[in-house]
């Protein structure tokens, strides 16, 4: 559930109200007990380190809390996030940090702490499929490339299929185990409706 809190600044467009970080955490807790959430991306603002810490304390043991804007694939910011215990996963964007070496450093740093890693596309992508290769090579577990609707997205998924074909029986589908906090709900689980 990508939330883009930095862009929304905790405002509800529909209701035109501002939510403080504590209220956001309460709202996410309610969502997580009402719906079978697996992850939240950018659950707090990009500069709201205390809010992220509150969110991780409340939900980090059962939901993947993915930091994108707060980390910007920057190893220095990821190290700070690890030290301050503000998330349990990071979105990795190769062209955001700039070099493959820095990207690998960021991925390994997160993985060494038991964090989830999500290799992601960016707006303005091309049909280059390198991030699919990077996802597999780094054992990242997740590739975020959008709906398979346009060539630049489809090519990345096609590359995953080619990799699987090449690996044959050595290829494995991680399923729920791809998550740092594997989902515990069943597909058929009834969930309550009506989040306020």
From TrEMBL:
Superkingdom, taxonomy of origin: Bacteria
EC number(s) reported in the record: 4.2.1.11
Coiled coil location: none
Keyword Secreted applies: yes
A Gene Ontology cellular-component term: phosphopyruvate hydratase complex
Domain Enolase C-terminal TIM barrel: 1-181
The protein's annotated pathway: Carbohydrate degradation; glycolysis; pyruvate from D-glyceraldehyde 3-phosphate: step 4/5
InterPro entries, sorted: Enolase, Enolase-like_C_sf, Enolase_C, Enolase_CS
Entry annotated with the keyword Secreted: yes
GO biological process: glycolytic process
Pfam families associated with the record: Enolase_C
PROSITE patterns the UniProt entry points to: ENOLASE
Chain's role: Catalyzes the reversible conversion of 2-phosphoglycerate (2-PG) into phosphoenolpyruvate (PEP). It is essential for the degradation of carbohydrates via glycolysis.
Family (UniProt): Belongs to the enolase family.
Listed name of the protein: Enolase
Phylogenetic placement of the source organism: Bacteria, Pseudomonadati, Planctomycetota, Planctomycetia, Planctomycetales
């Amino acid at each position: 559930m990508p939330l883009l809190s930095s862009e929304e600044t905790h405002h509800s467009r529909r209701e035109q109200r501002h939510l403080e970080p504590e209220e956001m955490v309460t709202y996410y807790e309610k969502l997580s007990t009402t719906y079978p959430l697996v992850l939240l991306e950018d659950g707090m603002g990009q500069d709201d380190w205390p809010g992220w810490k509150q969110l991780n304390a409340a939900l980090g043991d059962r939901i993947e809390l993915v930091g994108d804007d707060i980390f910007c694939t920057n190893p220095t910011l990821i190290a700070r996030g690890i030290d301050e215990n503000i998330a349990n996963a990071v979105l990795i964007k190769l062209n955001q940090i700039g070099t493959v070496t820095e990207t690998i450093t960021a991925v390994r740093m997160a993985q060494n702490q038991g964090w989830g890693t999500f290799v992601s596309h960016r707006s303005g992508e091309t049909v280059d499929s390198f991030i699919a290769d990077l996802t597999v090579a780094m054992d990242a577990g997740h590739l975020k490339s959008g709906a398979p609707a346009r060539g630049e997205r489809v090519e990345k998924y096609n590359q995953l299929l080619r990799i699987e074909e090449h690996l044959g029986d050595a290829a494995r589908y991680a399923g729920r185990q791809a998550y740092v906090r594997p989902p515990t709900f069943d597909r058929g689980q009834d969930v309550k409706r009506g989040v306020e």
